[in-house]
Amino acid sequence: MSGPRREPGQDRWCEQVTLTFTNTGGTPVTGGTVSLGTHIIGFFGTDWATVTSVHPLPAPIGPGRSADGSWTVCVDAWRVPFGMRIETRDVTVDPARPPAD
């Protein structure tokens, strides 16, 4: 999986996050989830909190293939007062594969 590519959203408490997932295994990935950890960053760079959101993987992904997934990630507006920002930094993937024969 690539690192998150982030673009600002329409509001300071939202951003567009894009990831590229590559299946390096020998069986297709048929589903699963990606968890995104979005950090709330203060004016002086202090990391105040992390909010996690869970999204479906862009599946199926065949063996040796790649797929992009893109999500708009937002936190509650009250968590990001003027002068603060968000950064989605943490990514965890839980792929689903078909059972072995």
Helix content: under 10%
Helix/strand-derived class? mainly beta
CATH topology: Immunoglobulin-like
The poorly predicted ranges are none
- List SSEs in N-to-C order: EEEEEE
Find the count of extended strands (DSSP E, 2+ residues): 6
Question: How many structural domains does the protein architecture include?
Answer: 1
CATH superfamily: Immunoglobulins
Outline the biggest β-sheet.
3 strands, antiparallel
Shape: elongated
> How big a fraction of the residues is strand?
over 45%
Record the strand order, biggest sheet: 1-2-5
Name the CATH class. Mainly Beta
| Average pLDDT metric | 92
Radius of gyration, in Å, reads: 16 Å
Number of helices: 0
CATH architecture: Sandwich
How far is it from the N-terminal to the C-terminal residue, by CA? 27 Å
What is this structure's SSE topology?
Blueprint lengths: L4 E4 L5 E9 L8 E11 L5 E10 L9 E9 L10 E12 L5
Antiparallel strand pairs: 1-2, 2-5, 3-4, 3-6
Can you put this structure into words, describing what you see?
This protein is 0% helix and 54% strand. The protein contains no helices and 6 strands. It has strands spanning 5-8, 14-22, 31-41, 47-56, 66-74, 85-96. Strands 1-2-5 form a 3-stranded antiparallel beta sheet, with no helix packed on it. Strands 4-3-6 form a 3-stranded antiparallel beta sheet, with no helix packed on it. Strand 3 and strand 4 (47-56) form a beta hairpin. It is elongated, with a radius of gyration of 16 Å.
